[in-house]
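2024-03-11 09:14:02 INFO receiving multi-entity request
2024-03-11 09:14:02 INFO entity count = two
2024-03-11 09:14:03 INFO echoing inputs for audit
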Amino acid sequence: MDELRAVTVTPGRYTTYLYAGASGDFNPIHLDDEFARSVDLPSKILHGLWTMAQVARAQTDVVGDPLALKSLSVQFRGLGVPEQDITITSKLKSQENGEAVFDCEAVQDGNKLVRRGRAVLRL
Amino acid sequence: MAHSDTYLVGREKIREYAASIGEQSPLCHDVAAAREAGYEDVVAPPMFAAVYKWRAMGPAVLDPQIGIDFSRLVHGAQDFTWHLPVVAGDEITTEASFVDEVKRGEIRVYTFSSRSTNQRGELVCEGTWTNFVR
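2024-03-11 09:21:47 INFO inference complete, emitting structure
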């Protein structure tokens, strides 16, 4: 298991629409630039739980098993936007008894979307 | 103030959700691959917990007795612990409860917890939702 990993994902132009349909979260701050600006956001923003799912995938893709994740906790901070790369870094903290613990974060254009992530993976 | 609801996990919903987050594992898309791996049907990606839990968590967060102004709500933190796989056809019952409200400077922090069990009464996932109100 690498001590430090970084993966990049790029939310597409229509990602928030796909995620809204899949999750049922149709809050217009994720779908409508004009509405988002009316509530003092820069533009439509990503769903935090979509970004958290990318942090989850950055862990489980390493072992090739989506069910290897035992727990994940994150703090949401900056607002994510479509069509800009997000880099997820994961740093191995400990590995014992068939489990690995990682500290992770997600950064987009210098803006921390997720900080203090903690993932526990079954190996 | 606990809210409970049951979510029937659909095969196409798992596929749709998996596609929306870029999850390409055959376990989440291909019934034959999932069965070969020992599951009854396609497997929900772990973060699908956010979807089946919302049925109970939404009413808990929006409970007028707690009085959160939804337009000023920010999802501050999230924590999930997974215990058992969830597959298409499962019926997941989630109980969501208000934990506490703490004032931190100008921000109020509301914490909610959830516990989800399957149709056999087995614990599948626990979660903690932390919301900031500006």
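2024-03-11 09:21:48 INFO post-check: The mean pLDDT of chain A is 94.
2024-03-11 09:21:48 INFO post-check: DSSP finds three helices and five strands in chain A.
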